[in-house]
Design goal:
Mean pLDDT: 83
Number of helices: 13
Largest sheet: 5 strands, parallel
Shape: elongated
Helix content: 25-40%
Strand order of the largest sheet: 2-1-3-4-5
Length: 429
């Protein structure tokens, strides 16, 4: 006899710990961009199939319009972090270089900050995983470090990059940054990155996600020589081996071989898509984060475009899987969002041209009334347009006499006894 099933109250149910983060919750409310109507207007370069037209159509779809309005508020978000894998000598950047770059971005002297200011682009820098340096190092500005998760990530080649709690905190920090931008009415986000060893982490994420070998994804990054490239390839190989068992679990993959800045980028991308705010990606780090985010929430990639193609093989593989085509091809990337900033001019040009063509589009002409077919009698006076006569009848054009009768004429008055009396209409003659 089967034992009766016992229902355990929910508050007494035992679990293995807190419920793990679900990235679909970060992208709650996600919808695809609108498909704009086909643009109408005079013949022009934008009317023929072109990259400008593709960009204008994508931008209009994200703005829920047939033709997008001007990009009045654009914000560059730079996510910064140090990476423990850099201890293997995989980068040409000096120790403490990330913190110095963050300070330069914050005070406006970094080349990316200068470029952003020249285009009227707002700049927001977030040190979510930067190692501050030695005791004599200048502290980071409080606004920049407000969303810090930890000081650098673990060495992904030999240990997890973060704990589960730190991974969730980083993802939610990126989502909060996207919420803040959407609430303030930002039209377009540009995503940049700064960090020693960042391209090594990005290559690892792409290799683990796409089941590629280390040699398929490793590039020169910060401009390393052959010896450093071999050390970088070995570090990615070891990290990918650790990541293989969790490659299909995006959050755990970020915890194992990611970093606070890449996890924050995933959160930002997903929340921006849910808030209907388009994002222009920069280099390989943004592409790797986009790949992880898209595998967790398919369809979110429709809200992203890519500013520039770099020389990193991992970026090429990620964008091929995402089916995203970069606006520009700049070769080696400078990082910090410079590729996205350079492509912003092209995106703005596409919007202006599309709006100008739409303004010149002629008013639609009224449809002409159909002409009668040859041999068809034209409707007579009093006929109702569009009403066909019944079969076997002739259209009425007036009062016709019945067949076999003559038209009636006025009768003279009758003789005596009937003088002055009219004849009854029904009286036969």
């Amino acid at each position: 006899m089967r034992a009766a099933r016992t229902t355990v109250p929910e508050e007494l149910t035992m679990t293995d710990g807190p419920r793990p983060l679900n990235l679909r919750e970060v992208a709650e409310g996600l919808r695809s961009p609108r498909t704009p109507a086909a643009p109408a207007g005079p013949a022009s370069a934008l009317r023929a199939p072109s990259r400008l037209r593709e960009l204008a159509t994508w931008l209009a779809g994200t703005r829920d319009a047939d033709v997008a309005g001007p990009l009045e508020r654009v914000r560059l978000v730079v996510l910064a972090g140090d990476h423990g894998v850099a201890a293997h000598g995989v980068s040409a950047l000096p120790a403490g270089g990330t913190a110095d770059a963050v300070r330069a971005l914050a005070d406006g002297t970094h080349p990316a900050a200068v470029l952003a200011a020249s285009g009227g682009v707002e700049l927001a820098v977030h040190a979510v995983g930067v190692a501050a340096g030695g005791p004599d190092a200048e502290p980071l500005p409080p606004a920049v470090a407000a969303r810090a998760v930890r000081a650098g990530s673990g060495d992904a080649a030999v240990a997890d990059a973060m704990t589960a709690e730190e991974t969730e905190a980083a993802v939610r920090a990126g989502a909060a940054i996207a919420d803040e931008a959407a609430d303030e009415g930002v039209d377009l986000l540009l995503l940049g990155d700064v960090g020693t060893g960042a391209t090594t982490v990005a290559a690892t994420l792409v290799a683990a996600s796409l089941r590629k070998g280390a040699v398929d994804v490793v590039g020169r990054g910060s401009g390393v020589d052959d010896d450093a490239w071999m050390r970088k390839t070995a570090a990615v190989r070891d990290a990918v081996r650790r990541a293989r068992p969790v490659a299909t679990r995006p959050v755990v993959l970020l915890q194992t071989v990611g970093s606070p800045d890449t996890a924050a980028a995933v959160g930002l991308l997903l929340r921006a898509a849910a808030r209907r705010t388009p994002v222009l990606l920069d280099g390989v780090v943004g592409a790797a984060a986009a790949l992880v985010a898209s595998r967790a929430v398919p369809g979110a990639e429709k809200w992203w475009a890519v500013g520039a193609r770099t020389a990193e093989p991992a970026q090429h593989l990620a964008l091929e899987r995402l089916k995203l085509t970069p606006v520009l091809d700049l070769g080696a990337g400078r990082g910090a969002g410079t590729g996205a900033l350079a492509a912003l001019g092209v995106l703005r040009a596409a919007q202006v041209l599309a709006a100008a063509d739409a303004a010149l589009a002629p008013e639609p002409e009224p449809e002409p009334e159909p002409e009668p077919e040859p041999g068809e009698p034209e409707p007579g006076p009093g006929a109702v347009s569009g009403v066909e006569p019944e079969a076997g009848t002739e259209p009425e054009t007036g009062t016709e006499p019945e067949t076999g009768t003559e038209p009636e004429t006025a009768e003279p008055a009758e003789a005596a006894g009937g003088a002055g009396q009219p004849r009854s209409p029904g009286t036969a003659r």
